[in-house]
Design goal:
eight-stranded parallel beta sheet, 34% helix, TIM Barrel, alpha/beta, 20 strands, six-stranded mixed beta sheet
Length: 507
Amino acid sequence: MSLFGNGLRRICAVAAAGTAAEMSKLVRVALRQTSTVELRLDWLASDAERARFLRWLGKRRLRNATFLATCRRREGGGKFAGGVDRQLYWLTQAREAGCQWCDLEVETLRKLPGQSVREYPVPPRILLSVHDFERTPDLPSRMDPPAHGAVDAVKIAAEARTIQDSVRLLRLARNSRNFVAVPMGEAGLPARILALREGSALAYAPVAAATAPGQVSLDEMKHLYRAHALSRRTRVYGVIGDPIGHSLSPLLHNTGYLARRLDAVFLPFLVRQLADFLSAVPEFGIRGFSVTLPHKQTILKHLRECEPLAADIGAVNTVVVRRDGSLYGCNTDYLGVLRALEKKLPIKGSRALLFGAGGAARAAAFALSRAGANVAICARREKAAKELARAVGGEVLPRRALRTESFDAILNATPVGMHPHGGISPLASGELHCRIVMDLIYRPQRTQLLKLAAQKGIAAVSGVEMFLAQGFAQWRIWTQKRPPEASMRRAVLAALRAEENSRPRYP
């Protein structure tokens, strides 16, 4: 059994706020989800706020909760401006308030006589923490607490610049005893979720929304990713791209796994270099992954086999990892485009403009062409536009022609206007001469392009329909089961609505 217990107790909620009132509110919220809470005393704005909060905590004496007090000094990456003596004073007060653990950074330990904190009346159990906010340092093969009992557990929190950095930290967790692994940064996020599975004593999650790249909220850690329930038998899937923070694929797929009670998890991988990710596939035990920009075309050279349609398109958005580790590629974007458009437009004989010539544009162009549409391509990269037009028997149009040409449908296949830069449109109002505008971007659901179309009385098709259709097809390919489409759709639409409602509205 872990020093912190098993199951949900190993998910540690992080309560960090500037006032005692805000901090106590976060603690109450945290205890509804887990019984282990880190109290960031260094975040409290003053000594008066720290005293006020600890008085509140001491009066409650919550017997079933495990509190870990942290008062990290600025030297160790925290917010506490005082010296070592004041830091130890507040940790002592935390023990009086009922905290069983304290997190002591190595910078403080080195300044103590004999490099030991046991002579001080701080909380009885000590977690020694090492933070590197720049990189993942060279790591030993294992990291156990010292045999003489100076500390009870060791934590290493390090910035993962690459996925391989996070793999190294997970290997250390796998080989160590009473060790906490915290891969930091967006590239480290998947490993952070899998850390408990690999043997980390704790996995940290902020009570409220994430406050830094690579963090997921307590609610997501527990309910979306179910980090406490993952094991080596859990099937791991994911989405790779750069950027990747906007993706709702984890919500879509994990909702499906939960509805069907499958032992599987879907993770977002920030992938700048394909080789970095592909070398980590065996380490993570990945069984399949979705591919988004900018890797839909470059992934082809890493596949052993590819379905004929995806080979013709020249872009892959879905990869199956076979038992021998080889990769098989296919394309479900094609299906997504057709499902989204055929409800609004008789595709056969129509004239469609594709703005863009990347991986998503290629799938859309082949889908429309094979369904009988006359396809025109307009793209910043003239060579790519000509190659795509030649492949689908279409035409290339210069940007200036959009002022006078008319179409049945215009499709945006560029990332312009994608979250978090949702206030811009790839096309101007005067370039929209058509019956239907479709944006392959799904977040935000109503992009600036679709808003321009609506202002002109043009029917708008959100990319969310394509996103859902291609995702359902992926889910079926990977699991060999029928996806719970209604549940998955509800989850995605609810998230998009919540995001839309949270935006400030200006008169």
